[in-house]
Amino acid sequence: MATASAAIVSPTTHVATVAELPWVEDAGKVAPKDARDLSKIFFDRLQVLEEGTRDYQYARNTLIELNMSLVKFAARRFRNRPEPSEDILQVGTIGLIKAIDRFDLSREVEFTTFAIPYITGEIKRFFRDTSWAVHVPRRLQELRLELAKATEELATRLDRAPTTAELAELLGLTTEEVIEGLVASNGYTAGSLEMTTTEDDDHSGGLADRLGDLDPALQGVENLHVLKPLMAQLGERDLRILQMRFGDEMTQAQIGVELGISQMHVSRLLTKVLDRLRQGMLAESTI
To answer: Where is the RNA polymerase sigma-70 domain (predicted)?
Structure first.
């Protein structure tokens, strides 16, 4: 067959060519019209290939590459979104793959017409499910969009901000449902703790600088409170060893000389008393 583009090589000129399909060297360089013509050939062949085979994967992957321009076209509508364009293209590609897997030539519909709604729908679903700072039910996410459109329409018509009752009447909802949707809309964005304070505020810096935090000394106070009755149960020698080791910061060898015992004996005594205190604190924390 004649080549439709310089990016296509005749089946007889490439050892990896799949039977009865042209070998597309670089699908990204194929002109749009040629891509449409080639897509029809690949879709026709894809319907009779066994899923999971090498031939099937080649045909499917080539269809994805040939039609990536559809993803880029659909993504242009969302170029002003704060989400990275790479993420939008990736999500749009998922929609393209779904369209390829569900397309049927017998419907006599152009693949472009069939695929665009899939791609756009996948991108919109991505925004709806991931763009919210706080997760809310999908029903309320969709209601937010309806309320935004209704608010804009009424504001233009009335030359003022619409009331809750006016929004409810336009959308055929109760005022309670409109209020629920408006409250849920607050979850779409979240303020950063690093945001600056208002001009009326006497404090400078971000909000995070003004929020309290746990005092690390509180843990020490709690530990001392638990240790006090446990220490009262120790013998005089154990208390003396603890004082010399942790109060006077003496080494085990120095303690041994002071008490007239070996360093090894001091180590065993320290380990025993510390284990006793540790077990007592653990038992207290589980009460």
So the answer is: 87-100
